Amino acid sequence: MTRATLLLVAAALVLAACSPTTSTALQATGLDPQPDGWRGIPIELDRQLPDVTLLDTDDQPVELATAFLGDPTLLFFGYTNCPDICPIHLAAIASAMGSTGVGFDELDVVFVSVDPDRDTPARIDEYLANFSPRMVGLHADLDTVEQALAALDLPGPIVEGADPRGEGDLIGHPAQVIGFDSDGQAQRVWPFGARRSDWVVDLPRIVDEW
Q: What DSSP string runs through 131-146?
């Protein structure tokens, strides 16, 4: 398959239910190496950090298109009640950063909530502290979050029904991490299934090459 085809295949999988009982709640099985040695799938479309204003957990405005320029950025859309996709991605990234020595002073990891009704700033801070308090948590009204997703050709979140754990609704949301270089240009995606070992390969290259 061409790289463009691979991207389309990945895009077809980005909306995944956060339920361990659904067919789309896949196990992290690892990514196949790309021809250039990366594990993340290259993006050939011209996409940049979306030009939207979000809020940090102090409710201060953050211009997503410009706030993280100067360092590479990993951007992920999710929610704190997610039972599988979100914690697997975030834990794998945090663990790989620790083992590779890649620090948050040279790579921004940004989590954007797709669940504004439940994800208060305090809840986002508490959640990200399980992985690293230096991960950046952002939130906004649903219309603004959907604008950011649309700018990246990603679908908006959808309510998938009651969470069997009794914690409200499960939300289907994009299940990939998007990597942007220091100029805010999208370079690669890591679909759900990426393991810690994939990030151990790619993280040093991200900070060295982007």
A: T-TTSEEEE--HHHHH
Which domains occur in the chain, in start order? 3-209 (3.40.30.10)
CA distances from 165 to 83, 122, 130, 157, 168 (A): 9, 22, 20, 20, 8
- What predicted TM-score, i.e. pTM, was given to this entire model? 0.85
Least confident of 94-108, 123-137, 156-170: 156-170
Give mean pLDDT, residues 55-84. 95
pLDDT given for residue 170 in this prediction: 72
